[in-house]
Design brief:
By secondary structure, this protein is α/β, with parallel strands linked by helices. It has one domain (26-361): 3-Layer(aba) Sandwich (Alkaline Phosphatase, subunit A). Helices cover 39% and strands 13% of the residues. The strands form 2 sheets. Strands 5-4-6-1-7-9-2-10 form an 8-stranded mixed β-sheet, sandwiched between helices. It has a 3-stranded mixed β-sheet with strand order 8-3-11, with no helix packed on it. Helix 11 (190-201) runs antiparallel to helix 12 (212-226) and helix 13 (237-243) runs antiparallel to helix 14 (247-270). The longest helix is centred in the last third of the chain and has 24 residues, at 247-270. It is globular, with a radius of gyration of 21 Å. Bound molecules: zinc ion.
């Protein structure tokens, strides 16, 4: 075989492999757990906190459900879907005990700055509070919503009532069902109508955050009905139960959200619109304090470790790598561009340079 011919064959092989491996998906669901620590994700429930009567009122129940001597068993008890489907078929970043680190680049380590960083791809020093101010920055969601192929195909759901401001629904036109908003539509399914009624009947423990069951079920109903191509869902309970100092509720909520994600993943594998062409990215807006342990209740610059976060990924164009154990530093501002890349797009923001794609997430 001539050298030229060999070169040609090799080039064709390389190019076709790249095409085969770089196949974008058509849909992405971005998920966040508000303030769920990497310590519980990778290590399961902390025994000393379950045994602390100040933090855990329902000790027997949570110990029976989540206690295990081996952290690998404990984490599987707490989040069984993450430690079966995601670890076998996807990727998990942020286990600092293995040297794998994910951090916020913003210097505030609380929600609005974190969600802004996730959704725009850069940290903005001007976003220094959780006040209900319309975000001046465009998010990656808005960047997609402006494209004809995604117009009317982007939707967001959140338990916290600040999301309409973070996503700037006024300007972006993206429907944001968050806080105590109800399903609004030309016609409502039976379930949407029921959720709307129930939301009025069940008092929320918090003034600005609803229980995640509403947020999750509103999302699923909307997906079945409208098949949006980009969905963002923010579960909020983990953060609020932690601020309340209820470790038992925090654990139960993390466990329930894991169940919902299992159900969501199952739905995505069965609806022909999503099946085989939808990827998931899962992360958190901030970490929480850890030393002393009771600082778990809060987060922010004065609580050491609150900038430590994690990222998980799962989907047909995401290679199975499981729990990533390599020494590495990733950042929250990389999520937006990575999400766009999964869909085959090169996201840029007109205001700032955005964080680079996490290349290992994409085949
Ligand atoms: Zn918080």
């Amino acid at each position: 075989m001539s050298k030229k011919y060999k070169f040609l064959i090799t080039s064709i092989l390389v190019i076709s492999t790249q095409l085969l491996w770089a196949q974008p998906v058509e849909n992405v669901v971005l998920v966040t757990f508000d303030g769920l620590r990497w310590q519980e994700l990778f290590g399961g429930a902390v025994d000393s906190m379950m045994n602390n009567p100040e933090l855990t009122k329902d000790k027997e129940q949570v110990i029976a459900a989540f206690q295990a001597d081996d952290p690998k068993e404990a984490r599987k008890k707490l989040m069984p879907w993450m430690w079966s489907t995601v670890v076998e078929e996807g990727q998990l970043y942020g286990n600092r005990w293995l040297g794998n680190q994910v951090n916020c680049t913003n210097r505030f380590w609380f929600s609005y700055p974190g969600y802004n960083e996730i959704l725009t791809g850069f940290s903005d020093p001007e976003i220094d509070s959780n006040a209900k101010k319309y975000n001046q920055n465009k998010t990656v969601l808005e960047w997609f919503a402006e494209k004809p192929e995604f117009a009317g195909k982007v939707a967001a759901f959140g338990s916290w009532d600040v999301f309409p401001y973070i996503i700037n629904d006024k300007r972006s036109g993206i429907p944001v069902n968050a806080g105590f908003r109800k399903a609004e539509d030309e016609y409502l399914t039976y379930k949407e109508q029921f959720l709307n009624d129930l939301q009025d009947q069940i008092p929320s423990p918090w003034a600005t955050v609803r229980l995640d069951a509403f947020t999750h079920n509103y999302m699923i109903e909307h997906m079945k009905k409208h098949h949006p191509r980009i969905v963002y869902i923010s579960y909020g309970e983990t953060d609020d139960f932690a601020h309340d100092g209820r470790y038992d509720h925090y654990l139960k909520s993390a466990h329930q959200t894991d169940k919902w994600l299992a159900a969501l993943w199952d739905y995505l594998q069965n609806d022909p619109f999503y099946k085989g062409k939808t990827s998931l990215l899962i992360t958190t807006d901030h970490g929480r304090g850890h030393s002393p342990m009771v600082q778990w209740k809060s987060h922010g610059t004065i609580y050491k470790g609150s900038d430590q976060i994690w990222i998980a990924a799962l989907g047909p164009n995401i290679p199975a790598q499981g729990e990533v154990a390599i020494d590495q530093k990733l950042f929250q501002y990389q999520v937006a561009k990575t999400m766009a890349k999964l869909l085959g797009y090169d996201y840029k923001n007109e205001k700032e340079e955005v964080g680079p794609v996490i290349e290992s997430i994409i085949k």
